[in-house]
Design brief:
Layout (H helix, E strand, L loop, with lengths): L4 H18 L23 E7 L7 E7 L10 H37 L1 H16 L2 H12 L3 H27 L3 H8 L4 H37 L11 H7 L9 H34 L1
Antiparallel strand pairs: 1-2
Helix pairs in contact: 1-2, 1-9, 2-3, 2-5, 2-7, 3-5, 4-5, 5-7, 6-7, 7-8, 7-9, 8-9
Amino acid sequence: MRLGVAFWISLCWIAIVVASAASARWWAIPEPDRMDWNHICAAPGTIINEVVLQPGKEMEISKYISLLGTDTKGRDIVSRIIYGARISISIGLLAPLIGLLIGGLLGCLAGFYRGAMESSIVVAMDIILAFPGLILLLAVTFYLGSNLQNLILSLGFLTIPVFCRVARAKTLALRSLEFVQAARLTGAGNVTILYREIIPNVIIPVAIYGLVVVAFMIMAEGALSFLGLGIPAPTPSWGGMIADGREVLDEAPHVSLIPSAIMFLTVFSFNLIGDSLRNYFEHGKSQI
């Protein structure tokens, strides 16, 4: 079974977004927080004179075409989208990674050892799921401040139960299979079986599921920024850009719609990649 055209197109889009964010300092664009009060909410394709571009702080050019226009403070939308990708992609990748590592390990332990350990882990995960995530984020923002590190840790903590449940369900299905029993007959201990037999077979489906969580985390960052709980200004993020343009939707809809479209394409691409990989591995197993 081939991965399909949709998978490769989605992968190319994610690669473009990540590469653009990583090379943001090398682009010939204005600084993301540079304001131009003479070109507020400029339409896409507006030609602006005497713009200072990065990385040269003192270099001015006669013309600059703002391909996607400017926002409510005259800041270039292309520049803010590229720099905002750093925030959105960092949260989207790092927060699920925390949940995958901690939740995946706890799920494997719960499904493999069963008994009191399983009961304790399941109760702990249920408590986290029952606790309102928005209240946690409000508390973290109030006491520790709103920054990238705290946001990643908070969202990562909230993803632990979902990864734990997926890993536990997969471990329960694997622990009674023949290859695990064969490892026991050879004299392998529980730790060896868990490390060599269970975790390698659990990590792939859990990681594929993580791509769906990545997409959800990108949307969560946008929603939190829209509510004022995200990365504070002037640091650009896609959610913050969408929130900045809500007051001018009638006069300049591009201020919110363009970053919304970028977020939609990125989230959609992660979902397509996850679905394609899941179908690929499930089809491969069915052929075996």
